[in-house]
Amino acid sequence: MVLLVSSGQRYLPLLIQQTDSPHALYLGVLLGSEPALEALSGYARESANPYWLEIVAEAGDAGAYYILALNEGNEARHIALLNQSAAGGYAKAQYELALLTDSALKRIELLTRAAHQQYLPATISLYQWYLHQGQVEKALPWLEQAASQDADSALILARQQWQKGQYTQARQGFNQASRLGSPEATEYVSLIENYWPAEQGSGWGPETVITTGRRCAMHIQPVVTSLENMRQLMSLAEEFHDDKRLSDLPVCLLRPIWLSDNQLNCDANWQGNRRLGCDAAKLAELPLDDELSHILVLAPQGKANVHNGIMYLDLTDSYSVFVHELAHFAGFVDEYPLSSELAGQMCHPNLQPPNLIYTLSEEELAQKVDKWRQANVDWELAKSRTCNNHPLQAYKASSRLTFMEYHDQAYIPPVYLALWKQRLNRKHYLLPAHINIAQALEQQGKFEQAKYWWKKRDAFYGMLPLSVDSNLNGSAAAPD
Predict the structure, then answer these.
(1) Residues 338, 339, 342: CA angle, nearest 5 degrees
(2) Which Gene3D superfamilies is this protein grouped with (predicted)?
(3) Residue 379 has pLDDT above 70, yes or no
């Protein structure tokens, strides 16, 4: 026997070279040759021969058990072969068993073993499991491992880093995800390069409008409070630029100011009103464009609304919501039933919103519809549900559902567009954001700073020349 083994060892290199002879290779396997086992495994896999797959599996090739499992129609036998493969350390089998088990502990154990072998699907599943369980710290090492190979993982990691204020690492992560093929990451890279204040992190002074080709009567200053909101703004701006319905409106979006998260102390339940709001006094600290008339604040969460000259939108708000709220800037009133409290404020016979008239009797209609007649555009009198919770009856200038009743209705009556444009060119109808800032400063006892913003308001209305206060030229930041 010793002589036989010795003879086999002598001719082992010749045996291994016979890759088309499984029997010769098997002899090398019996002699303990790893190269022979590797060569025989290759033959067995290429030929998909069950006999030789079982031979090399029993000899230590755990991957062969996995191939046998894939070709096994009997479920119990399939699972048994997967278990044999996983027990032998084969990562793919460990991963698939993890997906099949109902035991969370067993799943984590199998995924961890596979992830330690750099098996990417297992690594991704492992960090996703931890994230789903809210165990962010446990997820992080695996997320970082996956991010070096997987574009989606690199993007997730970069977004997390950005939220934590780790801007340098995040920028590197977005670039990595972009290189790995993520179009979304490429978009983030472009946004950061063009709009993010790389060093100061407090805001980028506006330079140009982002909606070009318009004559501006209303200049809206976007203030963005998160990376995702910045992406949202670019989408809104693009749709606004391409919206043929609104192309004649003299409204422009200025270059945005992008702030670090919650720098404005925004709250989804601002002052208990169940609406999104922010500390308007903090806006006075920003490098606001001197041309602004209104402000658009985009924050992560809260109900959309307009308060005087500030519009608030959150991440869930679509372009149709933006258009609806934009009309509120020009005094348009909702055409769905207002609450009793809000109807008490809005349903007043002396109020004249562009899209509605209010009456106690139909006899008053003839004189109140003059504003629609004078628009020289077709219109049609119809009841509105606005004041359903109030004694007054509201009427609108269209029998169809409009964008002021349901924001996702694309229809804007021609008479509404005519009145909208008319309002924008008559500043006394508008409430600029200077009012919001001045009032917020007064509420905080900052009366000298508030005076500055009241003067800005007066200058907007043409009641005060800009030369009256030298601070009205140049930076719009209020003095301390």
Answers:
(1) 80
(2) Tetratricopeptide repeat domain (1.25.40.10)
(3) yes
**Encoding tokens for residue 387?**
């004041």
Cβ atoms within 10 Å of 214's Cβ, excluding its own: 18
Tens digits of per-residue pLDDT, 67-89?
766 677 688 888 887 887 888 88
Model pTM above 0.70: yes
User: What's at 423, amino acid-wise?
Assistant: R
Position 473 scores a pLDDT of: 30
Cross-strand bridge partners of residue 393: 359
**Which of 335, 283, 345 is closest to 309 using CA atoms?**
283
CB count within 10 Å of CB 230 equals 21
Residue with tokens 């900052």: 446
Q: How far apart are the C-alpha atoms of 129 and 137, rounded to whole Å?
A: 12
Calpha distance 128→123 (Å, rounded)? 9
Helix axes 34-47, 62-70, angle to 10 degrees: 10
Residue 247 carries which DSSP code?
Answer: T
Tokens 């149709």, residue? 320
Three-class secondary structure of residue 267 per DSSP: strand
**Residue 163 CB: number of other CB atoms within 10 A?**
14
Mean pLDDT of 396-418: 95
- The pair of structure tokens assigned to 173 is 């992560």
| Single-letter residue type at 469 | D
Q: Which of 129, 133, 158 is CA-nearest to residue 142? A: 129
Least Cα distance to 233 among 283, 295, 182 occurs for 295
Question: Distance (Å, rounded) from C-alpha 427 to C-alpha 461?
Answer: 6
pLDDT at 25: 60
Instruction: Give the Cβ contact number of residue 428 at 10 Å.
Output: 8
Question: Strand 310-313 vs strand 356-359: parallel, antiparallel, or unpaired?
Answer: unpaired
- Please tell me the distance from the alpha carbon of residue 137 to that of residue 141, in angstroms, as a whole number: 8
The confidence band for 355, taking pLDDT boundaries of 50, 70 and 90, is very high
Helix (H) or strand (E) run with residue 358 in it: strand 356-359
Cα distances from 172 to residues 133, 146, 159, 228, 443, in angstroms, run 27, 15, 11, 17, 43
| DSSP β-bridge partners for residue 423 | none
Cα distance between residue 39 and residue 47, in whole Å:
12
Q: Per-residue pLDDT tens for 91-150?
A: 998 998 999 999 999 999 999 999 999 999 999 999 999 999 999 999 999 999 999 999
Percent of the chain with pLDDT over 70: 78
* Interior/surface letters 367-403, b for 16+ CB within 10 angstroms, e for the rest: eeeebbeebeeebeeeebebbeebebbbbbbbeeebb
pLDDT number for residue 44: 57
Beta bridge pairs of residue 33: none
